[in-house]
Amino acid sequence: MGIPERMNDVSAQPLIDWAIAGLAEQGITADGAPEVRNRDWSIVVRQPTDRGVVWLKASARGFAAEAGLLVLLGAAAPEHVLQPLLADPDRGWFVTPDGGPVLSDSGAAGSGQWISLLTGYADLQRAVADEVDALRATGLPDMSPATLPAWWEKVLDRAAEEPDVPLGLADLDALRGLGGQVAAWAAELDEDITSGRLPLSVDHNDLHTDNVFVTGGELRIFDWGDAALAHPFTCLGLALRTATGIEDVPTGIDDGPLRAAYLQRWAGPDAEVPTWMQRSCLLAEGMSYLSLAASWLRLPGGFGPEFAGYFASFLTGFRDFAADPQLPTTG
């Protein structure tokens, strides 16, 4: 039986039975009733045990790569993720220990915390830089630069089909008119990959403080269901917009030091960050609007008014970036 397309009406009991049996083999005993939450895209279960709370997750088809990805990341960069206690990648199921409080629980993260998060994320990306085939094997969607023009067309087609997306025909025509610019910028980012200057890596695609555990003073990233194989710098788009509050209430944080600290991990500790890398970073941040919108194509069913508004904001965000990209020139 294949992985369901949507999970809102799927029973959690097979997941619970599998997890309890697997945990018992590790000497961990369920100790209390499970608490189940069904959404279209996943089932999440809070299960008390004699060793503390554990979390069970079963993902819908479009998000099922998370199980295999977590196994890979747990082996390559265990200091940056929660290693699963159990995983069945073929079914998109896994179990993790409780990660403790999330970064947002203590209020708005400061600049130092963001720098720790982003430099740690760069280290994780570099740790899997030689694992592109393994990343692909998990089922991660391919959002590498070469694929972005095709994703752009799919995103605009979905926007036209969704009745709740607050964009008119004139808006969509104007966005389609940006197709040539999308292709040119995608080709520029693809040159980073094909030239060997940078590797493809994993883009979390939803990196913000609600998705980061603070475990014993260390930051561990979770909720990898939206992840994709992409240009590594794409991850900074949503992260820096969240850090600075551009899309909500300004936080007073300057994104410059955050970006610089992240890029320094790629340039090397004693190297000057080259202009081409700075340009690629800003360009990838702008193109991240496409990746975010493309990720939402995995959602089963229609968006509804709330999600449709978010989806439209990715498209208008890219439109605004394209109108004034402020990219440094190279050579």
TrEMBL record:
The keyword Plastid does not apply. Gene3D superfamilies: 3.90.1200.10. GO terms for molecular function: transferase activity. Residues 42-267 form the Aminoglycoside phosphotransferase domain. Keywords: Transferase. The keyword Transferase applies. This is Phosphotransferase. It comes from Nakamurella alba.
